[in-house]
Each structure stands twice: as C-alpha cells, then as structure tokens.
Amino acid sequence: MNLRIIKIVSSVFLCLSALIMSCDNKKVENKNIVEKKVIISKEIETPKGMIWVEKKTFLMGAKEGDKYAMSREKPAHKVEVDGFFIDAHEVTNKQFREFVNATKYITVAERPIDWEVIKKDLPAGTPKPADSILQPGSLIFNKHAKGVVSMANYGQWWKWQLGANWKQPEGPGSSIEGKDNYPVVHVAQEDALAYCKWANRRLPTEAEWESAAQGKFEDNIYSWGNKYEDLNENANTWQGTFPTDNRTEDRFEYLSPIKSYPPNNIGLYDMAGNVWEMTTDFFNVNYYQTLDPTVVQVNPKGADKSYTPSNPYQTEYVIKGGSFLCHESYCASFRISAKMGMEPNSSSDHIGFRTVATKEMLKK
C-alpha cells in the first residue's frame, strides 16, 4: 500500500508513514566560492546552475565520533564514485513551474485518487470511503501541534491536507507567490523523475549524494566539517522543543529560500536541512551490514530491494540531508550519512530534490 492508500485505510498508518516523509530572505554568500565554468573536456563544460564533483574515494556511512549515528548507517565503508555534475541547490518553484508550463504535467498530489485502482491493494470487502476522502492532497506539518505525549506518535505533528500541492503548499488559499527561489515541495518521486526526463537529468544515487556533500572532505560528519556547534550557521533545522516550539536560532521557522546559508567547500547549498532530497537507492536498513568492509565499493547503486521493519511490504527509496523539521531529539538527520525512507507515491512539505548529470548524458 502506498501512502495515499494508507490515509484511506487508517489515519494511524498514515501518520506512521509520515515519518519517511519566515523572517529573513537574506542570502548568505561564501566569498571563497566563485561560480565558474569548469571545462571537463573539449566538448563539455559545466551546465548552468550545476557543480562538478570530482571522482574520489571516501568513507560512506557513520563516521567515528558521530553520536547521532543509527544502525542503518553502519558500518562505514569505502566507496569510489566517478565524477558528475550536480545542481548547486534544490530544484526551485520557478524551475518546476517552467517544467509544468512546458509539459502540462500534473503532479501526484494534484490527481484524484482512483478507487478502482487502489482497492486492489486493500483487504477484500474494504468499503469505499466518502468522495471527500478521495480528493487530491498531501502531507503537511501541523504548525499548531500541542500537548505531545509520545515522540513515537508522529500523527501529533503531521496531517493530511486536501488540496495541498506544489502550488498550494499549505492547502487551498495558500500559494507560492513571491517564492520562486524556494525549493519545490509536495512532489512525489514520479514527479521528480518526470522533471528529470524533461531536463535531461537524473536523481543521484546515495553514494553520489554523499560524495557531493563531502565535497573536498573524505570522512566528515557534516557538509561543513565536524563541529555540531556550527549547525545553526550552516543549515535550516529545528531549535527548541520539537514539534511545539521552534526558537528560530537559524533565522527560519519553516522552509527557507535557496542559498540562505553558506555553501559547502565545492559550492553546493543546503546539503543539510531545509528539505529532504530524493535518491535512486532502495531504502534497506540492513544493506550496509551485507557489505565487505575490506572491499571498496565502486559506484554503488544501493540494495537490491527495499526493507524496513515498520513498513516491510512497501517499497521505499533513500532520502538524504534532513529538513527544517530535523531536531537532535528524534531525527538529527542533518548529517551526511543520515538517511530515511520515502514511498515513491508520497509527498509532503519537507521533501524536494536536486538533479545530477554525467558527461555521457550531456553528449547526447
């Protein structure tokens, strides 16, 4: 069952699936990073808005000294990843609008739910819900969450919002007017792949994403270094008491515009916080434990199949980087090795994506 089905069967299941799932607009510029065209060959130069990531070998997974590392990030292992281009920032509302205008594409969150299709995945005899339940929508963070009893009950800060989509991120009456430079959200993996096809790009593998986040580093915990104390200066996350009180010590309460924080050492913005970013790898909590730590993995593409104990029958894909909702008390996914799972038909207001391209793709 995908997330849209689960919302019909049980609000409890919906909320559990949701786990996988403003202030100052001033842009912070790193004066040591100068965007420039890099000539990769006589035929290819860096596409506009992208950064070249050099081929390198680095340590993937949990790093020594990372107190927040989870078992699915262990053990750390060496990987070798070929060079590639990656977007300097997440795909924005403006970029996604250009795609929609050119193709007339309709996102998953904008489509009515087809009962005849989804009932095939439900237990026999499941009654058809009211038509109002079968309307388009997406998950949004409940900004009015109060009286949280257990951090295991994610339904206390998530809710299904009819009419929420990339153009109306908080539901009917909301809009993205004046937010061209914000990451597009409420996109499912299907939507991101459609954008990639149009733009002659693809989503990164998890190894490529970590290679980009490391930049010139090889074994750092964070995209800016190894000091947790520098978090608020480098990422849009949650400070205070999650999910009821955000002290906005990083200047933003919820989503922030792209380039609001300094880039990493190769010029990539928001590789930590703001929105989760999609990859092509299956999410499998046991995958790293199946690898031989003495063998360097070359251009790995992840596990052969998806697996997570809390959702064993649903395919999930790895998302990376954390979001504006990440807090050390339950998530701490602003680390390079951190990962969570996302169902391919799911969407929410804290998941987006960025794209990559290879030399071979650009030659076509």
Automatic annotation (TrEMBL):
Residues 1-22 form the signal peptide. It holds the Pfam family FGE-sulfatase. SUPFAM superfamilies: C-type lectin-like. The keyword Signal applies. Residues 48-356 form the Sulfatase-modifying factor enzyme-like domain. Keywords: Signal. One of its GO terms (molecular function) is formylglycine-generating oxidase activity. This is Formylglycine-generating enzyme family protein. It comes from Polaribacter aquimarinus.
